[in-house]
Amino acid sequence: MNSFNTDDDTARIIQKYQNHNINILTFNQSRYPRVDKESLLPVPQSADSDKAGWYPPGHGDIFDALQYVPFYSRVMWLTSSNSGLLTQLISAGKEYIFISNVDNLGAVVDLNIMQTMIDSQAEYVMEVTDKTKADIKGGTIIDYDGKARLLEVAQVPKDHLDEFCSTRKFKVSSMVLGAEKAND
Fold it and tell me: What is the pTM of this model?
């Protein structure tokens, strides 16, 4: 998952793998308009407005970003720009999706965790750890309308940051999703 800030750089880097026996899929997370402090109106005048008028919502957007390709995203190596990556993966017979941040270099698929997920029919499994004072950025799990959701600090209004920072668990940025259940 890229943001509009990283998509072009990622495309340049992975271009060297085009002639290899590997299928690299990328997608963009959503983007939201910045709001003018004085007028309280959106800064961008159109979907094609300068990048400076937009901000990426963070990793918590992964569930929504996987399900659809917003009209302003550039998606590489996908056959249809009107359908989401999740739908394409499910159509290709993929049942589980392993997701990890690029900076989580120790992330690997643990077959014991996969088996536990299969046996319990969990929607997703996320690696979490106890939060320390150094863990300011990142995310945590919340209950939203009866469903477990990932909430990233970038999605938290300033007046709720203290509440967010007081959570005890911290997302380590590795997770496995059940593709069909993530599509709900």
Answer: 0.62
